[in-house]
Amino acid sequence: MPAPDLTLLLDAARGAGEIAQRYWRQEPQVWEKDHGAGPVSEADLAVNDFLRDHLTGARPNHGWLSEESPDEPSRLDATSCFIVDPIDGTRAFIDGQQGFSHSLAVTTGDRVTAAVVHLPILGLTYAAVPDGPATLNGQPIHVREATLETADILAGRPVMEPGFWRDHQAPPFKRSFRPSLAWRLCLVAEGRFDATLSFRAAWEWDIAAGSLIAERAGARVTNRHGRAMQFNSPDARVDGIVIAAPALHAELRGAMVAPIRPV
To answer: Where is Mg(2+) annotated to bind (predicted)?
Structure first.
């Protein structure tokens, strides 16, 4: 039987998907956020409102951290916190693509204790808790093994820049891309890709849920420095991500230039 917080997240994710589908390919209103933070649509806000009402209504003492809500410092004093991206992959959603997701996590302290990533159009629901397997639509999933020479890695173009790598060129892996960062972590978890990688700071709402799903599927999950991720932090960001099966993770870390500023 799923843990209570996981059951709550699963129910919320389904409701979020129903709301998102009302706007998908219906030309929702779209505008740009301040400071070049990217686009947001009326669907993002409608899903955010639903999730906040549904989740904090059930757990009023949990903190709240969402891409589409003003940050509330009180979350740092809460024992548990919801970390939510109402629509991860907003550009894909606006373009009518299928690969957007709802990313929902609960943290206790600085660790994720329940996680759901739901792709309503594709009918995919990934989930995990710390003491069970990662699942896709209720069935266990697991990472696959690869080497740097054979790996298919989900990442943006900047990871190929030579300055990030010890030999001044990226290793000979294949680079692929999907619009939702949360989904990228889950695709590694289910063994469809071998790793996901970013040298840029990642917002917690993009990766909190997927990080636990990937971990419970057998991946090593760290920031770019090889350290465990910590969530519900004041900055709400993680300094890069390296997520892969343990042997490939070690190869990737060994091939990377050590960052100048450790965290």
So the answer is: 67, 85, 87-88, 206
Report how far residue 38's alpha carbon sits from residue 48's, in angstroms, rounded to the nearest whole number. Answer: 17
Per the annotation, does 149 bind a ligand? no
Check whether 243 is labelled as a binding-site residue.
Answer: no
CA 255 to CA 106: how far, in whole Å? 33
The conformation of residue 263, written as its DSSP 8-state character, comes to -
Residue whose token pair is 């995919």: 124
Q: Residue 49 annotated as binding?
A: no
Span 208-231, pLDDT tens digits: 999 999 999 999 999 999 999 999
pLDDT digits (tens, 9 = 90+) for 146-184: 999 999 999 999 999 999 999 899 999 999 999 999 999
- 194 labelled binding-site residue: no
